[in-house]
Design goal:
Blueprint lengths: L2 H14 L5 E17 L2 E19 L2 E8 L6 H6 L33 H7 L2 H12 L5 E17 L4 E17 L2 E9 L4 H16 L10 E7 L1 H13 L3 H6 L20 E3 L22 E5 L2 E2 L6 H6 L18 E2 L10 H5 L2 E4 L2 E8 L4 E6 L3 E5 L2 E5 L4 E5 H6 L1 E13 L2 E18 L4
Parallel strand pairs: 7-12, 11-19
Antiparallel strand pairs: 1-2, 1-4, 2-3, 4-5, 5-6, 7-19, 8-9, 8-11, 9-10, 12-15, 13-14, 14-17, 15-16, 17-19, 18-19
Helix pairs in contact: 4-5
């Protein structure tokens, strides 16, 4: 732990408390190394060292949330005190609750892998394993990244709460190229794993070489297999809409429901899992000092939990769920239980439809109705009579999250820990078969 940073944060809270009713400072210190791979060779190594300081200041029912990236935390006192010059011109916060009186520090343990520091200094074996494993599948070339990080969180509040915790992060993805077809896979964890690196390479290469045929595609409704990468991306939006703030504002499919209502098929559940020490979103306390706990968002098709900070909980006459976010409650890690279908049975179970291995450009046209579209990236495979007949190029999925969740008809036993640019909330997800999703070309 950085004792100097913790002392600085404590002093910052002490000084600001002279002028504000409540003060909370959350410091996030991180070191990250990223190796970029291009054309089957390491191309760039980047290193970052960051200190982010987040301030929550309250006075007379007025609330300010500030974020700084600085190497001089002491200088923030004068910046924060400038707020007092305009304090009376600011309206009282519509959503406001005092910081909780929690005083027990219970940091997460078991999420720090000492191998991260070793491989930060010696990434060659990881890079070589990714390139070698991907090329062994017969692809022409591979690109991707390997990232290793160390993160420390320190929270100090004027209510006497003081706590810190540390974790490591490991993220790898690969894109494999074979002719006009590409394959992609990604992995995220708190622990380094050579086996995971090799699996990323194998899977990216597999999807790039699974077929050579380009086949015609007619827009319409199709049964679809969505890979863990796609599910990770789409469930990120569902999880954010389980925030009580999003519900209160009407920017959520759950605004029309209440806990206990059916929102998905019975075979589907998704959990917020902040205490899963293998997933990089692991945290032991939220931004208000509330101890985190694993909880169902949807369980067996039923909406169980909205995510709360202290303010939304006060507004909705309930308790914080340990998901602050001073303004917007947030999910930490997502965990989707597996089902009954083996991965190798997915194409046969789909029988007729499209297998989408990756996606990007997910956009919502209507948050309340959950109307979204997303575009396939890399292999999108046409399946007929239980066999892959070719790839169809880029396609667009247009549907609603309600229809997606209620149309699930198969879930794989196998699950994968995914995180990359399009999946920022670490997610343990299976493959999922969904019935009758609308597919078009991106230009349509």
């Amino acid at each position: 732990m950085r004792k100097d940073l913790q002392d600085t944060v404590s002093k910052l809270v002490e000084r600001l408390s002279r002028n504000f009713d409540e003060v909370a400072v959350l410091a996030v210190s991180s070191k990250e190394t990223m190796v970029k791979i291009w054309n089957s060779e390491p191309s760039v190594v980047q290193l970052w060292s960051r200190v982010g300081l987040n301030l929550r200041l309250a006075k007379s029912g007025r609330l300010w949330v500030l974020t700084y990236h600085t190497h001089e935390p002491e200088a923030l006192v004068s910046h924060a005190e400038d707020i007092l010059k305009v304090a009376n011109r600011i309206s009282e916060a519509e959503l406001y609750a005092s910081l909780p009186e929690y005083a027990t520090c219970k940091p997460i343990t078991g999420a720090f892998d000492n191998n991260v520091e070793f491989y930060t200094k010696n990434p060659d074996k990881l890079v070589d394993s990714l390139i070698t494993e991907t090329l062994s599948t017969g692809v022409d070339r591979v690109s991707g990244t390997i990232s290793l990080g160390q993160v420390e969180r320190i929270l100090v509040t004027s209510k006497g709460y003081e706590c810190s915790e540390a974790k490591t992060t490991f993220e790898v993805y690969a894109r494999a190229f074979k002719g006009e077809l590409t394959g992609h896979w990604a992995h995220g964890s708190t622990r380094v794993s050579l086996d995971a690196v090799r699996d990323v390479g194998r899977r990216a290469g597999y999807y790039a070489t699974i077929t050579k045929n380009r086949v015609d595609f007619t827009p319409g409704e199709y049964d679809v297999v969505l890979s863990p990468l796609v599910m990770g991306n789409l469930l990120e939006y569902v999880a954010w809409m389980s925030s009580a703030l999003m519900v209160l504002m009407g920017f959520s499919i759950f605004a029309k429901y209440k806990p206990g209502d059916k929102v998905a098929v019975e075979s589907f559940s998704v959990y917020d899992a902040p205490r899963d020490t293998s997933l990089p979103g692991v945290v032991g306390f939220d931004a208000e000092g509330v101890e985190t706990h694993n909880k169902p968002i949807i369980e067996k098709g039923v909406l169980v939990t909205l995510l709360h900070n202290n303010a939304t909980a006060s507004k909705m006459n309930t308790k914080s769920t340990g998901n602050a976010g001073w303004v917007n409650p947030q999910p930490w890690n997502l965990d989707v239980p597996g089902g009954l279908i083996r991965e190798e049975e997915l194409v046969r179970e789909l029988r007729d439809g499209v297998f989408i291995t990756n996606n990007w450009y997910t956009r919502l046209q209507n948050y309340y109705e959950g109307l979204f579209s997303t575009v396939s990236r890399d292999a999108a495979l046409l399946v007929k009579n239980g066999e892959i007949v070719g790839h169809v190029g880029r396609i667009r999925v247009t549907s609603t999250f309600n229809k997606l969740l209620s149309g699930i008809k198969g879930i794989s036993k196998e699950r994968f820990d995914v995180q990359w640019w399009e999946v920022r909330i670490p997610t343990r997800a299976p493959y999922i078969i969904v019935s009758k999703l609308r597919l078009t070309r991106p230009e349509a």
